[in-house]
Amino acid sequence: MPILMPLDEQDPLRAPRLQRLFLADCQALLLRLRESVAQVDHAESARIAHSLKGSAGQFGEAALEASAALMERAAVDSDVTTMVAALLQLEMHGSILAARQPGPSGQSGKPDDA
Known about the structure:
Oligomer: single chain
CATH class: Mainly Alpha
Shape: elongated
Radius of gyration: 16 Å
CATH superfamily: HPT domain
Number of domains: 1
Structural class: mainly alpha
Order of helices and strands: HHHHH
CATH topology: Four Helix Bundle (Hemerythrin (Met), subunit A)
Low-confidence stretches: 108-114
Distance between the termini: 39 Å
Helix content: 55-70%
CATH architecture: Up-down Bundle
């Protein structure tokens, strides 16, 4: 009789290697997004935010997905104030995501409690 694993362990997207790839992709998208916002390229900002939103949704990162959706809408509407606020939110989510990613040994990025 097979042993049932918790749902999180059955989800292939929770594999440490895929999580690291997701993090790297998010960081690259955030860098490109920062640049497009600085260059006042609203169309590019909307495209990048859309990609980030899709990746976040696939990996179950609801807060990141919501902030990316906010950025996408703001970029489409050329709402610079909201774009700047959304960018700050996205960078915060990116930092939080990076801090909890497993390292090469499978350990999380959190400091030891010892």
